[in-house]
Write a structure and sequence with these properties.
Radius of gyration: 28 Å
Shape: globular
Structural class: alpha/beta
Helix content: 25-40%
CATH architecture of the domain at 5-209: 3-Layer(aba) Sandwich
Number of helices: 27
CATH superfamily of the domain at 5-209: Alpha/Beta hydrolase fold, catalytic domain
Number of strands: 33
CATH topology of the domain at 5-209: Rossmann fold
CATH class of the domain at 5-209: Alpha Beta
């Protein structure tokens, strides 16, 4: 007779009794070990101190089909599981990436004969697929009994590419253990202990997560609610949002007044309630930036619905990752967005944005959400790894609004052109009109000066928000402006460009396009924005006038890109790069290179379903940014690159930004990336360049000797090689952040004589 689930639970109890295990116990389990360990835990609740589960399940979600691997194995049980190692090999080959040969053999060796595979046969036979199965009631009882463990610390680690235990099983466990910390690995499969750093994560969780109780958050200061500015302009017929025509950038396709915007937001709040979408639900928005998206976002915020805001610039694969990791209950889209939802095959209820305006307009509005409620989940650009969901509360969004308003000294008289995706719906919170120019949000660098000017003229704009790639294209295409367009840009008083390091050359080139404007470079990231701010006039006079790019005549030790002083209410310190996870070391002195740490009221709460990364990046109210730089003796912040992109040579550490800025001063070089080749500690510096007129030497990807000589003369570091790339890989959101990891892999292959990967 095969041993059943109940027998395995009893066996585990016999073992712990024989070992005289008394507790406290933290169970760690994977696959079928999950139900077994949970059955044991429910019989020993008084001994339990915590739970760790990985790619397992205690119930099959209604929408989950029986995996093909299990169905086939059950239908051919003895052949696939006992007489041959078919099932065994199928399970081991679910590793992502594939196991090494030695590790694979280690897992397979205990089952090298049919006699040794009877346990596999019995295990597969005991999976309770049918409700008549002998173990079905046992598993159901274990699933129901998880409520007894909801007081315990819990950690769920999940490989999301598991073809057996899909994300639906993770979501089921999250509902049964709502207190659990969750870390989801988007590229890992079933063999999570082999696929990932799960051992390190568990060790960190065990040794650090429970060392001390978290201090209660400080009460948030009283601010106006995020939707208050819209309500304050009720009855105002002035334009709130303009949409430019997709076919003619000089024509306004749609417009809505502040009074109409207020009415539509309230109508949408009631429509959401009528659709059964309520406070605390997650709603993903797949709507083109403009009036409809703005109405939807502010209606959700007012109703307490969590806005999941994926960026179309992430691409189809990035969107799929973002939405599957954030697990929205609902997806709302326009026509294009709903087609995308079908392509993504998301397990969420779909709604058309237009259909949600049909609720009972006499129904009362729901209660306002609290300041500590989660308001939104936005996503990083994905330029330094898979895009991460960043969680904001209502208090943090309101603090961010106030920080932006104060930094740019915005008043009710200002009018905003938004060519920077993260701020596409910001203007209504500030109570000012806005327009999104005719542009492809996935290719912002294609926005030309005339198109921007058409949008500015339509609204009589005073402010422009744009990424560095957009500003570069605008500066390059400014000679094509007509008289009216040139006049419209001359009325702009402020330009903000952010999203990547901004070179002094770009700021100087942009100034004549906006002759009356102060051009600012706010520094920040998805997790906290803005952090610092500097003006083009200040940076241009200091750096260009000093005759050395990336250097400051008043602070000779300063290198990189100056991003200015921390804004009021923002604290910035520089700490050693090697700080252990979960700890904050003492800051370094001025002019010393280190990692940038930031603290502010408008900083994010942390990451969504990424416990380990959150534990690493958010420590005691500080955000560990992953950027490297220094504070000079005047308190100004200089950004020099990313921690992961530092070049560790035998003579010291080289930060990439300084080298790149210097290389880009060479005529003909449009973009440069500095990367390290070879082992850490003895890396060689390679500079990879692109340029419209760039020609490579005899080996096709090695720069011409003249260019190589010029770059070596311009750069204050020993350059081992200069390579010409076919293109420079940049993030899709801003078209500005260079993916140095891809460039490094490409350069390494070129210098080894191997076939380089596609950039």
């Amino acid at each position: 007779q095969p041993r059943r689930l109940a027998d395995h639970v009893a066996d585990l109890g016999s073992v712990t009794n024989a070992l005289q295990v008394k507790g406290p116990v933290i169970t760690v389990a994977h696959d079928w070990g999950g139900p077994i360990s949970m059955g044991w835990a429910q019989q020993h609740v008084d001994q339990m101190a915590g739970v760790v589960l990985m790619n397992t399940g205690v119930a099959r979600p209604a929408a989950a089909k029986v995996p093909a691997l299990i169905s086939i194995a059950r239908a051919t049980l003895r052949v696939t599981c006992e007489l041959t190692p078919t099932f065994l090999h199928g399970a081991l080959r679910m590793a992502r990436p594939q196991m090494s040969r030695d590790v694979y053999r280690g897992y397979a060796s205990p089952y090298d004969s049919a006699a040794r595979r009877t346990g596999i046969r019995d295990f597969v036979e005991d999976i309770p697929i049918e409700d008549t199965h002998p173990s079905f009631d046992t598993l159901a009882s274990i699933a129901d009994g998880l409520t007894e463990l909801q007081h315990l610390p819990a950690l769920l680690l999940w490989g999301s590419k598991d073809i057996v235990f899909s994300d639906m099983f993770l979501h089921d466990l999250m509902e049964r253990l709502p207190q659990a910390d969750v870390h989801r690995y988007p590229d890992a499969g079933h063999q999570i202990m082999e696929d990932t750093d799960a051992v390190d994560v568990i060790d960190t969780w065990l040794t650090q997560h429970h060392d001390e109780a978290a201090a209660p958050p400080a009460p948030a200061p009283q601010r106006s609610r995020i939707w208050s500015a819209i309500e304050s302009r009720r009855g105002d017929d002035a334009d709130a949002i303009l949409e430019m025509s997709a076919k003619d950038s000089g024509t306004v396709a749609r417009r809505v007044s502040f009074d109409e915007l207020d009415s539509r937001v309230h109508a949408m709040v009631r429509g959401l309630a009528a659709a059964g979408i309520n406070n605390g639900d997650r709603l993903a928005t797949l709507v083109t930036p403009g009036i409809d998206l703005t109405v939807l976002v502010y209606a959700c915020l007012r109703a307490g619905i969590i806005v999941v805001a994926p960026d179309a610039a992430l691409g189809l694969g990035g969107l799929r990752r973002a939405l599957r990791s954030s697990r929205p209950d609902y997806v709302v889209g326009d026509r294009r967005g709903l087609l995308l939802v079908k392509a993504l095959r998301l397990p969420a209820t779909r709604w058309s944005v237009n259909d949600l305006m049909q609720g009972d307009q006499h129904a009362p509005l729901p209660p306002e959400p609290s300041l500590t409620d989660t308001a939104a989940i936005v996503f990083t650009s994905g330029s330094t790894g898979p895009s991460k969901g960043v969680v904001y509360t209502h208090a943090q969004l309101e603090a961010q609004r106030d920080a932006v308003r104060d930094a740019f000294e915005l008043t009710r008289d200002d009018k905003l052109v938004v060519a920077f995706a993260p701020f596409a719906v910001l203007a209504p919170a500030l109570g000012i009109p806005s327009v999104v120019p005719t542009m492809n949000v996935t290719k912002p660098s294609k926005l030309v000066a005339q198109t921007l000017a058409d949008a500015a003229r339509a609204i009589d704009a005073t402010i422009v928000f744009a990424s560095p790639a957009v500003v570069a294209t605008i500066a390059a295409t400014a000679p094509d402006l007509d008289t009216v367009g040139r006049s419209a840009l001359q009325q702009i008083r402020s330009v903000a460009t952010a999203g990547a390091p901004v070179s002094p050359q770009l700021l100087v080139a942009a100034q004549p396009v906006f002759p009356a404007a102060h051009i600012f470079t706010p520094y920040g990231m998805t997790e906290v924005m803005p952090v610092t701010m500097a003006s083009a006039r200040e940076i241009g006079a200091r750096e260009i006038g000093a005759g050395e790019i990336g250097a400051d005549a008043t602070n000779p030790g300063s290198t990189g890109v100056c991003v200015g002083q921390p804004l009021p209410g923002v604290d910035v310190v520089i700490c050693p790069v090697s700080a252990p996870t979960g700890t904050m070391p003492a800051p370094v002195d001025a002019d010393q290179l280190g990692e940038v740490w930031v603290r502010a009221a408008h900083a994010s709460t942390g990451y969504d379903h990424l416990w380990f990364q959150q534990h690493h990046a958010f420590v005691g109210g500080w955000h560990r940014t992953g950027d490297v730089g220094h504070l000079d003796t005047h308190g100004r912040l200089w950004i020099e690159g990313r921690v992961d992109h530092l070049i560790h040579s035998s003579s010291g550490t080289v930060a990439p930004v300084q080298t790149e800025l210097q290389a880009e001063t060479v005529p003909g070089v449009d973009h440069a990336a500095a990367v390290g080749i070879g082992p850490i500690g003895t890396q060689q510096l390679a500079v990879v360049i692109t340029g419209a007129s760039m020609k490579s030497g005899s080996s096709a990807m090695v720069a011409d000797p003249t260019i190589t000589k010029a770059i070596r003369a311009a750069v204050n570091a020993d350059v081992a090689a200069v390579l010409v790339a076919p293109r420079m890989p940049v993030d899709r959101r801003h078209n500005s952040k260079i993916d140095r990891t891809k460039v490094q892999q490409w350069a390494d292959a070129v210098l080894r004589g191997a076939r380089p990967p596609r950039l």
